[in-house]
Amino acid sequence: MKPKYVLLFFLCLVCSCSNTFTYAAGGNRAVIVRNNKEFVTAVQRPNTVIKVRGTVDLKGKSLSIPQSCTILLSKGKIINGYIFGNDTKLEVNQPSSIGVIFKGTWMCPTIDDSFFIAEYLSDDDVISNINYLQNKKLFNTIHLNKDKYLVSIKESGGYSLCLLDSVKLVNNSQIALKANNYKGYSIISIANCTNVEVTGGQIRGDVGKHTYLQGTTSEWGMGINISAAENVLIHDMYISHCTGDGIYITGLPTSYIGDYSKASRNIVLRNVTCDLNRRQGLSIISVDGLLVDSCAFINTGKIEKASPAAGIDIEPNVDKGRNNSVRNIHIKNCYFEGNAGRPFDVDLGVTDGIIHNFANITVTNCTADGPFFFGAQNVTVKNSKFESIIVRPFEAPVHCKFENCELYRGGIIIKKALSHDVLYKDSRNSNSMVNLTIKKCRINYQPSSINKSDKLVYFDYTPSNDVTINFNSCDIVVPNSSAMKVKNSKKIHVSFDKCEVKEKRQ
Question: Is the pLDDT of residue 22 over 60?
Fold first, then answer.
């Protein structure tokens, strides 16, 4: 028999078998499987493209895939078992194809929750599969379209959905956390990775249902935890009911003050609402480059409260070796309302005498229903409306500028330092210098609960270091002339340059 007829005979014999074999591009063997037996046989061979065209029921068993294999789900499905990938390519061309739990490593550029069969996979199983299907070697796009995912955390400090490098999550779902008793959690974790985008949907913690264990404040439950990540965009989201913060931005803990190499870098939050969280809407702990644009921070601490219950709190950790720093932060077009604590806190400006851990923080075009609080330097506030300015100088100087702002109630309050058991605790009780420049601002001063005196500038201590406050070209309304009287001294220097002052009795 001639060679060409031998080859033809061989191909006909192969095609007559239950499996159809061809060769894919690059020489990989292609196998069509229609049942469990054929699938188990096929996955024993490396360099194979496995085309599933029937129902493969693993009956609760586990399978490991050898190297350089592809699983193609075009007209079939795989159910009831566990599959361990080995950088296995996964292609899914129809919905409701996957009813197994993935482990190992996979190559699947587009991950869609329509792939998964709810009959075989719980919400936690689906999210776990998404965690395993991501691969840092690819750009992954994840689509969540189910109305609601009710998820759990396996251990205290753990996470539900963990995003890796080069991932875009398109979320059209609510990801809600089951009630638990953990002191900390992350519903979405973005840690030690780069180039991540999260857009849309809702995240909901377990405030109102959480069990708080004795001996812990349980204040570390985060909606989104961004830790030592770079180039992250979070936008058009609603985050609520977390026992800690809606969003927490930090770096690696083992840094020294002024070290930005271990901070999160180039983070953008846009059109995000943080509502009804317990401790903070947003905590900023360690970052170099952050834009917070057109976000709302509302009702923090309204259901359950953990101090400080602020809208935004910029507060680097500086104790027990966590010597974090922040710089290049711009907060603009943001709205603060109904927070049990202050709308905006920038605090703990620790210094070693040379390096300070705050640099270049600006707030523009923001509106708040309460006071802004400052315990740091290098902060500028422009074109914003808020109740009053509260300053508490710790051992680092407070140097802040305000321009074209509106203060509508309590004036300026300079408070004494508190005693904290943290870094530099020996100097914690002594106040540092204060330098405030207030330019072209509109100030309508009225006595209030936070300013119990009748003075526009109120001190609740006797300064031991210089306090300099300059009002320049401001429009000031006070209930009577005595409100303008400030007792200047060797340590207190308050001046009014080109200001217009009006009396308006309340």
Answer: no
